Amino acid sequence: MNKAKRAAVIAGNWKMNKTPSETAALIEEMKPLVADADCGVVLCVPFVDLPAALDAAKGSNIKIGAQNCHFKESGAYTGEISAAMLCELGVEYVIIGHSERRTYFGETDETVNLRTRAVLDAGLTAIVCVGESLTQREQGVTAELVALQTKIALRDVPAEQLSRVIIAYEPVWAIGTGKTATAAQANEVNAVIRATVASLYGDAAAEALTVQYGGSMNAGNAAELLDQPDVDGGLIGGASLKAADFATIVRAASR
Description:
Strand content: 5-15%
Strand order of the largest sheet: 7-6-5-4-3-2-1-8
Largest sheet: 8 strands, parallel
CATH superfamily: Aldolase class I
Structural class: alpha/beta
Helix content: 40-55%
Radius of gyration: 17 Å
Number of strands: 8
Order of helices and strands: EHEHEHEHHEHHEHHEHEH
């Protein structure tokens, strides 16, 4: 597999942080720091911050994403947002199936698949999250579980849409805990994801697929993680809320 054949993407997941005015200020601070990036740069912000983020990022190399969307086009789904709504705003990316959505808000492998398909059908790019809990890792089922999550997420996704899929491996035990998978562990699971995609779509599609690591990647460990042959970028949590740290990670992906 030739890593040079696929795009590195660093995506910030701001989670439930920053007001619209704070969003605009942070993006203005980030823009000159990442302007020369040789990788994709994405910021996924809370729904209420999307207009401010899109306006602040206009004319820059920063793309804006949402953190979730519903799988229906419209209907009686109080508090939800559709892919069509995001499209009209100008959003280009959507995170699907983050472990916090699975843990706190009832997301399942099946709804992750439905949301992924809705995002792709709308012409957006899906950042699909997969990963195991600490118990599952200790039980030795990481590879099987991640392969299963990947297969279900991509069910009925046609090959021509796969170019708008990014898969983020985010070990649940390393999210927001300060713990990080070793570079070797991250690469091993990312390789499982790539092999799973190869079994579904063929080697060429798998080689072109961007697979991120998303478990507490930060300014200190990014370079080592991104040096791995199957780690093509990162889904960044806390470090994406600090302009200097985020820029350091972007530089590590641009080498």
